[in-house]
Amino acid sequence: KYYTKDDLAGLAALIREGSDPHILITHGTDWMPKHARRLSELLAGSDKTVVFTGAMTPIMNQKAGFGKTDA
Known about the structure:
Blueprint: H1 5-17, E1 22-27, H2 32-42, E2 49-54
Parallel strand pairs: 1-2
């Protein structure tokens, strides 16, 4: 899924307001660079550490019932 500006703004707000200092985001590889860059801009000045990691196919994709996905 391509996240909208509103989606990313909402995610940034959740990260800023949350108590966790470290955030790990598992993300499909197609849009990860663009989304990570935008989230970084939205979190400028924040003391949060956010790490994106690429996920091409979920573990046990078919058994988990995901079917076809870009995540």
